[in-house]
UniProtKB/TrEMBL annotation:
Residues 301-328 form a coiled coil. InterPro entries: HAUS4, HAUS4_met. GO terms for cellular component: HAUS complex. It comes from the Eukaryota. The keyword NADP does not apply. This is HAUS augmin-like complex subunit 4. GO terms for biological process: centrosome cycle; spindle assembly. Keywords: Coiled coil. It comes from Monopterus albus (Swamp eel).
Length: 369
């Protein structure tokens, strides 16, 4: 397809938001959003062009035509089968009704003969259908119980009884079907059950049209329900995507707020711990003072203070003496290693002088005694 024809097809669907909406409507089964089409404009054009050749289910026009023909043929075969099946089930119901009436009361002889003849004919027809080998490809396949169709045909009632049954069959079948239709009418509209026979027959003639209308309305409601389901899924997807975005935004806001609050909490906690530490320190000092007051008297404390003052003065003097000695020692170290021997000799002599002074002192004390 040329670019010109493609642009014609795209423009025929609409422009902007209208194009997106029509593409989404043309492919309801696809899980797409309008945002996807906006983000992929070439893909949107492709879908708009493709919508001219396929229907909403994705089938092409020739395939859809062929499918419709096959569907019509299938419907025709189905109607034929339903007619045959309905007729067969109607005859079976007539036989069952006859058996029920026969068990609960007397039945007219002609009615009894009619039902028995019809039952035998149905059984024979069913047996013949089972024995029919025309649909089987295997010609050598043995028949059921070794029976032949001719043997089963011999079980049919007399020709006269069969002819009489065939003459009465349309009338009896019509009565049975009419009775079923009236039962269906009573079930569909219970208020019509007490109406006259003529009015029931009149309303019965319109029952099929009403049921057809109800069927079409039901199909329309189903289609609307499917469209609403697709629309709901699309809206749910959009809602979930928007909800995820909101959750992510909320998470980021919570994280930022938490970081700011955490800084304030840490600062307040630090102030609290500092205050508590200061309080504990003051409490320790108070306890120490209380212990001192409980342990020492005021005189003892004053004496300790004097002793402390004296010791501190002596310590100060010793530090000053140490400082002067260190200065002298530093001046001596300037003289070098030659003065080290003289200093050692001087120390030795001082020690000897001190020892002799102590011995002289002791000797003098003992002499005075």
């Amino acid at each position: 397809m040329s670019a010109g024809s493609e642009s014609i097809h795209v423009s025929s669907l609409g422009r902007g938001d209208s194009l997106h909406q029509q593409v989404l409507a043309s492919f309801p089964l696809c899980d797409m959003t309008e945002e996807d089409l906006i983000q992929n404009p070439q893909f949107c054009k492709l879908l708009a062009t493709l919508a001219q050749h396929v229907d909403q289910t994705g089938l092409t026009v020739p395939l859809k035509t062929e499918l419709d023909k096959v569907e019509q043929k299938l419907q025709s075969q189905r109607r034929y089968w339903l007619r045959s099946e309905s007729l067969y089930r109607g005859l079976q119901e007539m036989i069952q009704d006859h058996c029920v009436r026969k068990c609960h009361g007397t039945v007219p002889p002609d009615q009894n003969m009619f039902c028995e003849t019809m039952e035998k004919c149905l059984l024979v027809a069913q047996c013949l259908r089972q024995l029919d080998d025309s649909s089987s490809n295997d010609q050598d396949q043995p028949s059921v119980l070794g029976l032949k169709p001719q043997q089963v045909m011999e079980l049919l009632p007399s020709e006269k009884s069969v002819q009489r049954m065939k003459q009465s069959l349309p009338r009896e079948l019509e009565k049975h079907l009419k009775k079923k239709c009236l039962s269906l009418l009573s079930y569909y509209q219970p208020e019509w059950e007490n109406e006259s026979e003529g009015l029931k027959n009149s309303k019965l003639s319109h029952l099929s049209a009403q049921l057809e209308g109800e069927k079409k309305r039901t199909e329309s409601l189903k289609e609307t329900c499917r469209e609403n389901t697709v629309l709901l899924q699309r809206h749910t997807q959009l809602y979930l995507s928007e909800l995820i975005k909101c959750i992510q935004l909320l998470q980021s806001l919570i994280l930022d707020h938490r970081l700011k609050i955490q800084t304030d909490l840490d600062r307040k906690k630090l102030d609290y711990l500092e205050g508590k530490c200061e309080l504990v320190s003051q409490k320790i000092k108070t306890e120490m003072v209380e212990i001192q007051l409980d342990t020492y008297t005021s005189d003892t404390i004053s004496a300790h203070r004097k002793i402390r003052e004296k010791l501190e003065s002596e310590l100060k003097a010793c530090r000053l003496e140490k400082q002067s000695v260190e200065l002298k020692l530093a001046s001596f170290e300037i003289l070098g290693k030659e003065f080290e021997a003289l200093a050692e000799e001087y120390c030795r002599l001082r020690q000897e002088i001190e020892m002799k002074n102590w011995a002289l002192k002791e000797f003098t004390q003992h002499s005075d005694k």
